[in-house]
Amino acid sequence: MFRALADVLRQIGGAIATVVTLPFRALARLFGGASSTARGSRA
């Protein structure tokens, strides 16, 4: 029973981690794309 509870808590923690990191990944991708395009326009 405790093992099942631990698995459920682990899955919830993983879901929360992905939800929390998704916006930061999107922002990093946006800024990364902007910096790469800025580099291209400068050259």
From TrEMBL:
Identification of the protein by name: LPFR motif small protein
Top-level division of the source organism's lineage: Bacteria
NCBIfam families: LPFR_fam (NF040918)
InterPro entries recorded: LPFR_strepto
